[in-house]
Amino acid sequence: MTFSDARQQGTAGDAPARLSHRQITAVMSGLVLSMFLGALDQTVVSSALRTIADDLHGLTAQAWVTTAYLITATLATPLYGKLSDLHGRRPVYLAAIALFTVGSLLCGTAGSIYELAAFRAVQGIGGGGLISLAMTIVADITTPRERGRYQGYFMAVFGGASIVGPLVGGAFADQATLLGIAGWRWIFLINVPLAAAAAVAIVRVLRFPHRPVRHRLDYPGALALAVGLVPLLTVAEQGRTWGWDAPQALLAYAIGGLGLAAFVVVERRMGDAALIPLRLFRIRTFRLGVGLHFVVGIGMFGAMTTLPLYLQLVRGMTPMAAGLATLPTVAANLAITLLVGRLIARTGRFKAHLVAGAGSLTAAMIVFATLREDSPLWHAMVGMALMGAGLGASMQTLTTLAQCEIPRTDMGAATASVNFFRSNGGTIGAAAFLSILFSTAAGHIADRLAAARHDPAYGRLLARPDNAHALAGVLRPGGGVELQDSAFLRALDPGAALPFLQGYVASMRLVFLAGAAVTLVAFLVAAWRVPKLTLSDE
C-alpha cells in the first residue's frame, strides 16, 4: 500500500489508516529538517547576542531581539493551523519557510538593535509555522501512544540544534569579518541555504492528499489578540525603563486587558472558526497541557537567555566557548528525550516523566541561583545537566498531555494552541527575566563599586590609565553606571572588574530564583492535578 493509498482510506473526521514506521519516517525526514532550521536560529542567536548587542550599541535593549521574534511567532502560530486546514499542510509550510528566509536576509542587513528586532519580527512570522505545523502533521499520522516516540525525534532535533547552534553562533561572532561582512551577520545569512534544503525536502516528502476544512479565518480574533498581547509584552520589556507604574505602562496594561477581553468575546462568537476554539478548554487534559506549557515556557526561555550572559559576562568566555560549555544541557536533553519517548511508546504512561521533568527544571534553577562570580565551571554544568534532563522529560510529555483527548478534527487548532501558549510563556519569560536582570544590575554594581572605593588599593586600580580608559563613559558622575555596552569588561584588570561581576551575579540570582518559583508551580500542578492516563494505541 502506498502512502497516498493509506491516507485515502480515512474520512476527514475519522482516524487515518495506520501508517508503517517507514512511511512515517519518510515524512519525518522533511519535518525534522524544517524544525532544525527554526531551532537552530534560536540557539545560534542566543550564543552571539552579547556580541551583536555590543556591535549595535544596544546591550540593555537586546531583549527586543528575542521578544520581537517571539511576539510575531506567537501571534502567527494559531493562524497557521487554520490556514493549513484550508489550503493544505504543504503550501502553508512552504510559505512559512519563505517568510522565515526573507526575515533572515533582512536581519543580516540590520544597522541598529531596533532594526534587528524589527527584522526578527518578520522572521518570527515564518518561524511560527515551522514548529507548529510539524507537530500537527505528526499528530495527523500517528496514534496517541506513538506520538511520544516521534515527538521525541523533534526534541532530539532541538538537542542537535543546541549543540550546533552555540558553536556556529560563537564561531561567527568571534570573526570580526568574513568575506567582507561582519561575522555575526552570517548567523542569519546561513539560514538561506538551509531554508532552500528544507523547502526541497518538504516538496518531496509531504505529499498526502488534502481534504479542506471549510471555515472562515478568524481575522477579528487575530487582531484582538495582537491588541491584547503586544502592549503587555512591550511593558514587560520596557517596564524597567518607563517605571512599572508610569503613565505609559498603565496605558499598556489597560489596552492589553481590553484586547484580551475582546479576544475572548470574538472567540465565543466565531465558534469552530475561532483561532483558539474555547470549547477545547472543557477538555481537562488540554487545559492542563496548555497551562503547563505556558508556565514551563516562562522558566525555560528565562534560563536560556540568562545563562549565556553568565558564561560570557561573568566568566569572560567567548561566544564559542560558552556554546561548548552548554554541552551538558544538550547531552542530557538528547538522552532523556529519546529514553522517555520510547518508554511512553512501550507503556502508554507519561505522568511520572512529566513530574520528574518539572522537578528537574526546578532543581536546575536553584543550582543556577547559587552561582557566584568565582564558582567552578562544574557547578554551572550540574545545573545545565538538570535543565537538559528536565526539558527532555517534560516538553514532549506536555504536548502528549494536551493532545491525548483531542478529536482528530480539532488536532490542528489544538496543536497550534499548545505552541501558542508555550511561545507566550517564552516571550514573557525572556522579556521579564532580562528586564529583571538589567533593571537591577546597575544598582547592584553601583553599590559594590561604592563599597570597593573605600579600599585605597581599589582606588589606585581605577586610576591606572588602562582601567580609566576602559571605564570612560561607563562611570557616571553621581556614582551610577552606564551598561549599554559590556565590551569594557574585557579591557579591565580582573581586580577592577570584580564589583561589576558581583553586581551582574546578584541580578542573575534574582532571575534564577524567579525561574525556580515558576517551575515549582509547574511541578506542583503536574504532581497533583495531571491524571494518570494510559495512551491509546489506536
From TrEMBL:
Q: What InterPro entries does this protein's entry cite? A: EmrB-like, MFS, MFS_dom, MFS_trans_sf
The annotated topology with respect to the bilayer is:
Multi-pass membrane protein
According to the lineage, what is the superkingdom?
Bacteria
Q: Which UniProt keywords apply?
A: Cell membrane, Membrane, Transmembrane, Transmembrane helix, Transport
Q: Which Gene3D superfamilies match?
A: MFS general substrate transporter like domains, Multidrug resistance protein D
Per the database record, which ranges form the Major facilitator superfamily (MFS) profile domain?
Answer: 27-534
Pfam families with a match to the protein in the record? MFS_1 (PF07690)
Q: Where in the cell is it found?
A: Cell membrane
Where are its TM segments located?
26-49, 61-80, 92-114, 120-141, 153-172, 184-205, 217-236, 248-266, 286-311, 317-340, 352-371, 377-398, 510-530
The name on file for this protein is MDR family MFS transporter
